[in-house]
Amino acid sequence: MVTKTVMNPEERRRELLACAMKLFAEEGYDNVSVRAVARAAGVAPGLAYHYFDSKEKMFAEAIEDYARRCAESICELLDDNNLSLDEKLEQALELGASDDYPYAAFFHTEGHGALHDRLSLAMCEAVRPHLRAALEADAARWGGAAPDADELAAIMVYACVGLASGPDMPDEAAVAAARRYLRALLAEFRKGSTAD
After folding, report:
1. Which of 38, 110, 162, 191 could anchor a disulfide with 48, C-beta 3.0 to 4.6 Å?
2. Are 159 and 181 in contact (CB under 8 A)?
3. Cβ atoms within 10 A of the Cβ of 46, count?
4. Side-chain half-sphere of 138: how many Cα atoms within 13 Å?
């Protein structure tokens, strides 16, 4: 008698997304189907279609899920109350500039620029609320308000991801420039948040 493993539906969905991302990265979009993902995950095709009604939807959600997983360590760092904002930004910049992500080669392959941009934007959206919260906490620490924290978080995140998205990353010159501009933006933010 074969025993089936019953999984929480959200766990099953995440497992299918992880399997899909792996197959898309290894075999290319054109060579992967929803059925192939189901087979690789060891589930019936009908179950995979229950979660994803098309390959396009599966691929889009796989990239979103992958972006969230890639951003997890940066988000956790930004949420760490034991670090100053300056330490958080420095360490987040180092993490973001590393190319130590699974499937990095797939997204950096020539001809995959649009996919890389899509991944970068999804990572920005995952990190942005965590940076906003860190900026607000920093302003509160200095006794000020943070009315522009969301806008500044967007500027910082999108600029850094843009700098870190080049084909020759990690590029120390780009990281050094990002570091300089982040410090300048943060100084201006602190000046504005404590002004009367």
Report:
1. 38
2. yes
3. 9
4. 28
Q: In whole angstroms, how far apart are CA 30 and each of 59, 122, 127, 148?
A: 11, 22, 30, 43
Note the pTM of the prediction, 2 decimals.
0.82
Burial 163-189 (b: 16+ CB within 10 A, else e): bbbeeebeeeebbeebbeebeebbeeb
pLDDT tens, 108-118?
777 777 787 88
- CB burial of 63-72 (b: ≥16 within 10 Å; e: otherwise) equals bbbbbbbbbe
- Annotate 106-143 with b (16+ C-beta within 10 A) or e (fewer): bbbeeebeebbebbbebbbbbbbebbbbbbbbbbeeee
**Nearest C-alpha neighbor of 137 from the set 80, 178, 191:** 80
